[in-house]
Amino acid sequence: MNPQNSRQEIDHLLDTASLSAVPEQRVKQIEGVMVANLRPVRPLASRGIYFAAFAGIFVAVCVASWLGIPARGWQALSDLQRTLVFAPMIAIAALLAFSLVRQMTPADGYSRSTAMLAASLFLWLLVFMLLVFRPLPEPAFLYDAEGCFRMGMMFAIPAAIMVAWLFSRGAPLHPGLAGATAGGLAGLTGLAVLEIHCPILNLYHILTAHVSVTLVCALLGYIFSSVTFPRWRSNP
Hints:
Helix content is 77%, strand content 0%. The chain is an all-alpha fold. It folds into two domains: 3-35, no CATH class; 47-234, no CATH class.
């Protein structure tokens, strides 16, 4: 059978078919079911405000740690080390904050490209660390690593709570990516705090105790959001 003829026949049947009118009472019933669970939605603030808020969390936690703890790590770093460590971290934090803002509004998409750019820049940060730090003797390696990891998480967890609270005002479509992005920003905050305050410049210590804070927070954010978000959506 010719596809063109079949299409014409279908169009003819649809044009000539007589459809009975839906009773008005039935229309009202359908309308009632559709609007029963509708609630007014408070519009989101502008992107700039949310971006400033997410970035402000990163800055505020770092500044608070600076005011409360001696910045021995900052003093131990050379000018080159400070530049190659903190410049990428600031750029990554800005990209993660921008990605979170995009993910809050479904119509804006979830900005996978921005999150991937942040991940790529994080890899460059690791490369820079490999270039400017070197293995050094550290007799109490495990003890120091445990202490730094706990300290990084101590600052990352409050940052994660604030980021999650702010982000919950939006409507993300991809909970796993949203959780990883939020966790990554919180973990990056913990990493920045450690670089400011930890004077140990042993490459293995930095990769094991400092960088791991960001990776663990991103992973936990992904898992937590993937598990809890479907339940939250099903129980508004």
